[in-house]
Amino acid sequence: MKKTHILYLVAFAFLFKSYGQTSRLKDYKDASLSVDERVEALLSLMSLEEKVAQMRIFHAGIGVKSDKEGNLKLSENVIEKLKLGIAGIKNPGDHLSAVKSAKFNNKLQKYIIEQNRWGIPALFVTESYNGVDADDATKFGRPMTSAASFNPDLVNRIWDVVGREARLRGMHMCHSPEADIIRDPRFGRMSEAFGEDTYLTTQMVKNAVIGVQGNYEGLGNGTHIGAVTKHFAGYGQVLGGSNFAAIEISPRTLIDEIYPPFEAAVIEARSLGIMASHGDLNGIASHGNPELLTGVLRDQWNFKGYVVSDANDIGRLHYFMKVAETPKDAARIALEAGVDIDLYAEDAYSYLPEMVNENPELEKYINRSVRRVLRTKFILGLFDNPYIDIDEVVKGVRSQTSLELAKESDLESIILLKNEENTLPLNKNKSIKIALLGPLVKENTKEMFEAVAGNTIKFVAEKGFNLTNGDSGIPELLERDPKSIEKLVNIAKDADVNILFLGGDKYTSKEAYFDGTLGDRTTIEPVGPQDELIEKVKALGKPVIVVLQHRRTLAINTIAKEADAILDAWDLSEFGDESTAKIIFGEVSPSGKSPVTIPRSIGQLPFHYSMKEINYKKGYLFIENGPIYPFGHGLSYTDFKYSDIKVSNSEITPNSEIEVSVTVTNTGKVKAKEVVQMYLKDVSGSVTRPDKELKAFDKIELTPGESKIVTFKITPKMLEFTGIKMEKTLEAGSYVVMMGTSSEEYLETTFKLKL
C-alpha cells in the first residue's frame, strides 16, 4: 500500500509538473507578465520553421492587394508564406487612403493572426522621406530640408506626426531615419539624410527617432511606430558616390564622425531597430560584420532591438560581394554576425531550417534573433491590441495642425544664399508683373503665389522645358530646345521681376537600386540649359531671383554669379511654393542655414567644412579657393551683429565645464530668427585634427534693436577624440572657440584644457 501511495504521488507530481509547464507555455498571452517573460514563453512553443518565419519580411507588392470592396486579395505565394506567420510586410496599403489603409491592414492583420497557430501578429513597415511614404499622408520636406532649419524641436514634431499618421494607417515600424553622414553630392540619396556634419546629424536623428516613437511611450500606447535607424554604418561614404560601391573609412573617422548619430539613436532615443548598410566597411561586408553588428551595436551600446538587412543584401554576400561561397554560407554569416531579419529575399534565411538539420548549433542564433523580433512586437502591444480604431483615423491623419506644421517647417528651412542690394523681399502692394519661369515650375506654383501676393501683382508662369524624359529607372537628359528657351526669355522681357525655378528634380537625384536603375552622377552642375537660361534672362536687365529646388548639392557657379537673390529650398513640403512665396514677399524672414558645404567643382571633393586643417593648405589652379557658400551659411532680411565673446574660465579640466557667451543684436528693421553656431578647434593634437567642429547651436528670435546673450556649455566630452592609441582621449593644450553665423563668419576666443 505504501509503495502504491508513493507511485501515486510520483504520478501526481508528474502530471502537476506537466500541467504547470503547459500553463506556463500559454502565459505569453498574459499581459501582466514582463515582455521578456512573454517572449520566452512563446519562443518555447514554436517550431523551427515558425521561428524562421519570424525572421523574414516580404514586400506587399508580391501579392498583398485589395479588391474594389476592400477585401483581401492575396496571391498563392503570400498565402503560403503566412501559414507559419511572418516577421512583417513592407508597405501594405500604401496606395490607399488613410481610412482604407487602416481597414485593409486590420483585415490583413486578422488574417495573419488567424492563420498561424500561435496568433503571432505581423509588423507592417513603411519609410519616411517626405512624411509617411504612402498616399493621403502629410507631405513634409525631406530630411536634408529640415536639417537646414537647425531646429531639433521642429524635427521632433515633424516625426511625431509621421509616427502618429503611420500608426493610424496600421503601420508599426519605419525604415527611417537615416543617420548617415553625407558628404558626396554625386550620391543620389543625399537628401534622405541630414547633412555633412556629425553633430547636426546627431541632433536631428535623435529627435527624429524620439518623435516617431512618441518618446518611446507611444509604442505600447499604440499611437506611434518604431524607428529602424539606417544604414549602419558608413553607407553615405560610398566611393565615387556610387551606390553599392566600396566604403573605406579610417577607424578613427568611423568612431569620431560616423558612429555618433547611430549611438545617440540607440542609447538616447532607444531606436527599436537598426538596418545594416548595403555596403562593406573597409573590406568587411556590413551584413556579415560581427564586430559592427554585435561588438559595437550590442556589446558597446547595449542595443536590444532587432537588426534588419537592407533589401536582398544577405543573399548578396554570395552572389554580389563574393564573401560567401554558397547561398547557405551567406545566410550563416549574416545570422552569426547579428542580422535578425531578412528583408525581401526568397532564398537567404529560407535555408535556415535545412541548415539547422545539418548544424544544430545554428538554432541558438535563430533563437537569439527571434527573441528580438518577438520582443519588438510585444513592446508595440500587437499581441494585446493589434487593430486600428477607424474612428481615430479621420481625426488624426492630415489634421490641420499637421498641415500647418508642414508649412512652418518650410519657412524655417528655406535658406537665403544671396541677396544683392536687398532684392528681397518683394513688396506685394506694388503693382508689378512677375514671371515664374523654369523647369521646376509646378502646375500649382502660380496659384500658390497668387494666394500669398493677393490681387495687386500679376503673375505669369511657364515651365518651358523638362530636365529629363521622366524615366524612373534610367532617366535621360533631353536635347536642348532653342524654341522653349526663346519662349521663356520672351516672357521674361515682358515682366518686371523674373523668378527662375532651377536645380534638379526626383529624376536627377535618386536611389540607384540594384538592377535597372541609376541615380548617382559624375558631375554636380545643374543639368540641361539652366545656366543658359539664367544668363539670357539676366541680360535683360531685370531683377532675377532664383528658387533652387533639388535633392543633391549643386555647383551653382553661374547661378551664384548671375542671380540677384537665391533662395535654396531643397525639397520642401506639399506647400513648398506657397512657403517660398511667403519668404519672397517678406511675410517671414528666412532663417535656414546650409547643412552642407556648397563646392565650386566636383574636383574639390571631398570637401566639407570639418576636414582636417591640413586639407586647407593648398587650393587648385584656375579656380577660386573655398566653397561657393560654406556650411552653416544663410542670410536674413535683417542684420545680426555679434559682439563681446567671452569664456567663463580660461581653463577647463576633465572634471569641470566652462561657458562661452556672445551677444547677438538685431540691428535691422524686421523681427527675424538667427542660428547661433559654436565651433571648437583643437590647436594641436597627437593626431591631425579637424579645422573646426560644430559642437552647439541655438536658434533665437530677435525684434529690431533687441540683443540677447547666447551661452553654451563647453564640456570635456566635446574635447574628446580618438587618439594615437585608438582610444578616446583628452589632451592638454589650447583650444579656439568660435561663435557666429556660419562656419566661416564668427568671433573667437581661446581656452586651455588642463589635465
List strands and helices in order, with pairings.
Blueprint: H1 2-25, H2 35-43, H3 48-53, E1 56-59, E2 64-66, E3 72-74, H4 76-81, E4 88-90, H5 98-115, E5 123-126, H6 143-147, H7 152-168, E6 173-174, H8 198-212, H9 217-221, E7 226-232, H10 251-267, E8 273-276, E9 280-281, E10 284-285, H11 290-300, E11 306-308, H12 313-319, H13 327-337, E12 342-343, H14 352-358, H15 363-379, H16 390-396, H17 400-413, E13 415-419, E14 433-437, H18 445-453, E15 458-462, H19 482-493, E16 497-503, H20 530-538, E17 544-549, H21 557-562, E18 565-568, H22 576-584, E19 640-647, E20 651-652, E21 658-666, E22 672-682, E23 693-702, E24 707-714, H23 716-719, E25 721-722, E26 728-729, E27 733-740, E28 746-753
Parallel strand pairs: 1-4, 1-12, 4-5, 5-6, 6-7, 7-8, 8-11, 14-15, 14-16, 16-17, 17-18, 20-28
Antiparallel strand pairs: 2-3, 9-10, 13-18, 19-21, 21-24, 22-23, 22-27, 25-26, 27-28
Helix pairs in contact: 2-15, 7-8, 7-17, 8-10, 12-13, 17-22, 18-22
Give a quick precis of the structure.
With 755 residues, the protein is an alpha/beta fold. Helix content is 32%, strand content 18%.
